[in-house]
Specification:
It is a single chain. The protein is of the alpha+beta class. Helix content is 41%, strand content 24%. Strands 1-2-3-4-5 form a five-stranded antiparallel sheet, covered by helices on one side. Strands 6-7-8 form a three-stranded antiparallel sheet, covered by helices on one side. The longest helix has 26 residues. The two termini are 27 Å apart.
């Protein structure tokens, strides 16, 4: 699951949520290398012909485009949501690349957790009666259901002290 509970400090439970990463950083070099090798095969057959110069720019653009797309996806994968839960306060911090952190704080006694059928399957929200925030937007429906159950237990424990 792309989330983790930490109980490092007494009285503080920290939940960190991150997007699923289908391509690890170590696989990046393999993808670029295999793409370049695959594009090199037809280019090698054109050695000594003028058509080679017509193919080279397209092969270069294809590799550069793939490189750029993977790097942008990699950058977006640095999004994090952190939930700090104590008996006195619940704080949710969302960190997106290139944007200032968004912070929401509430008293855990008043926080209500809900799963909604829309706008996406098992849409997970937190509310304190004044503001509603979404939690784990990048998680799958199964992961949001599991997180809902764990967070319900954690909130119950925080409320009882």
């Amino acid at each position: 699951m792309p989330y983790r509970w930490d109980d490092d400090a007494p009285g503080l439970r920290r939940l960190t949520i991150w997007p699923h990463r289908s391509l690890p950083r170590s696989g990046f070099a393999w993808v670029i290398g295999l793409t370049a090798a695959g594009l090199a095969l037809p280019i090698l057959s054109m050695l000594g012909r003028t058509a080679l110069w017509g193919l080279l720019p397209f092969a270069g653009v294809a590799v550069a485009g793939l490189w750029t797309a993977i790097r942008l996806s990699d950058r977006q994968g640095t999004t994090r949501e952190t939930l700090d839960l104590t008996p006195a306060a619940l704080t949710v911090t969302r960190s997106d690349p290139g944007r200032p952190d968004r912070v929401w704080t509430a008293n855990p006694h008043w926080v209500r957790l809900a799963l909604h059928p829309r706008p996406v399957e098992d849409y997970l929200t937190l509310t304190d009666g004044q503001r509603v925030i979404e939690l784990g937007a990048f998680l799958s429906p199964d992961e949001r259901r599991a997180l809902h159950a764990e967070l319900t237990r954690a909130l119950a424990e925080a409320r009882t002290g």
